Amino acid sequence: MSVDEVASLTADVVVLADDGDGVGHVLLVQRGHEPYAGCWALPGGYLNQGERPKTAAARELAEETGTTAGALVFVGVYAEPDRDPRGRVVTFAYRARLATMPPPVAGDDAAAARWLPLHEALDNDLAFDHAAIIVDALRTV
């Protein structure tokens, strides 16, 4: 990264819940815009100026899925230089566990939002490095 290059900051949330049969699910959004238009991704987005990463994670979750989560647990920082084709993007990832799977309502720039079984989500080509973030979040459960 050159001195003139500035990294953008984002926050993503891995929201986990079990269905009535004990199958683990993750809440994902379908991206409405490039990059990765049409691909499934974690709810998340850019931090507003002066906003804390955890606050941004909760805000983006609500905006994109209509879902609120109580405790957000820090998972890690993801800063590989090529993780986003738009440029240098550093994301703060969080995890939340819900007791139920409330029906999500897609909003903001999400074309759709839904709960996917974890095995199905991880078998998909998720946007960015979101599969790795989910795997890391599962290690913190």
From TrEMBL:
PROSITE patterns: NUDIX, NUDIX_BOX. Signal peptide: none annotated. It comes from the Bacteria. The keyword Hydrolase applies. The keyword Hydrolase applies. Keywords: Hydrolase. Residues 8-141 form the Nudix hydrolase domain. One of its GO terms (molecular function) is hydrolase activity. Belongs to the Nudix hydrolase family. This is NUDIX hydrolase. It comes from Candidatus Frankia alpina. The lineage of its organism: Bacteria, Bacillati, Actinomycetota, Actinomycetes, Frankiales.
